[in-house]
Specification:
The chain is an alpha/beta fold and 211 residues long. The protein has a single domain, classed as Ribonuclease Z/Hydroxyacylglutathione hydrolase-like (Metallo-beta-lactamase, Chain A, 4-Layer Sandwich), CATH 3.60.15.10. Helices cover 21% and strands 31% of the residues. The protein has 5 helices and 14 strands. Strand 3, helix 1 and strand 4 form a beta-alpha-beta unit. Helix 4 crosses helix 5. One zinc ion binds next to loops.
Length: 211
């Protein structure tokens, strides 16, 4: 499996490209902007790789800036948790209007919910519903890799003060993530990677929650 983080768009959101090198099928997680950059990296990492699915950790504008363009170019199926679905058709709900960077909107093809298993090539993506930052935030597990969107960051946690945010739900979600295997590598929506073990020991919010 090939995995790369590509910081994209005005908020330098981490877009992740994951390629199954058996089938050369790829998933793109959170295409926040810079569609051509994402496709160029994909081609450089594995020539001929096909984007099969686009998976969204949540519906915020900084995670979907290149969604419409990437969909047009690749025809990939778009997945989002049903609770964040309205954000894909409203630039106020996805807060891109608030930040002055309205997105080209594009609806999803498939709705995710907790426990779903999505196949790509010889691999699977497991969906874990982790609300709090938004009602439909999800984390995605592929092998030993956990994609946490804006729920868990290295030494930080997501905002809960934006529309639809919920601190109690976020705490619950973080407790759930903290119970996962320590070796899981964490790939957040912004900033550097970490592991569950490292965050259990050093993330001040997790430490407080685990007391
Ligand atoms: Zn967000
Ligand atoms: Zn974000």
């Amino acid at each position: 499996m090939i995995l790369e983080a590509i910081p994209c768009g005005p908020m330098q959101t981490n877009c992740y490209v994951v390629i199954d090198n058996v089938s050369n099928e790829a998933v793109v997680i959170d295409p926040g902007g810079d569609m051509q950059l994402i496709l160029d990296r994909l081609k450089a990492l594995s020539p001929g790789a096909r984007v099969d699915k686009i998976l969204l950790t949540h519906g915020h504008g900084d995670h979907i800036g290149a969604l419409a363009a990437l969909k047009r170019k690749t025809g990939a199926l778009i997945y989002i948790h049903y609770a964040d679905k309205p954000m894909l058709s409203d630039n106020t709900l996805n807060i891109s209007a608030l930040f002055g960077i309205p997105c080209e909107l594009c609806p999803a093809d498939c709705m995710m919910q907790d426990g779903d298993v999505i196949e790509f090539g010889s691999r699977t993506v497991e969906v874990i519903h982790t609300p709090g930052h938004t009602p439909g935030s999800v984390c995605l597990v592929i092998g030993d890799h956990l994609f946490t969107g804006d729920c868990l960051f290295r030494r930080g946690m997501g905002r809960y003060d934006l529309p639809g945010g919920d601190l109690e739900a976020l705490k619950q979600s973080l407790r759930k993530l903290a119970s996962f295997e320590e070796k899981l590598k964490v790939h957040p929506g912004h900033g550097p990677a970490t592991t569950i073990g490292e965050e259990r020991r050093t993330n001040p919010y997790l430490r407080e929650l685990l007391k």
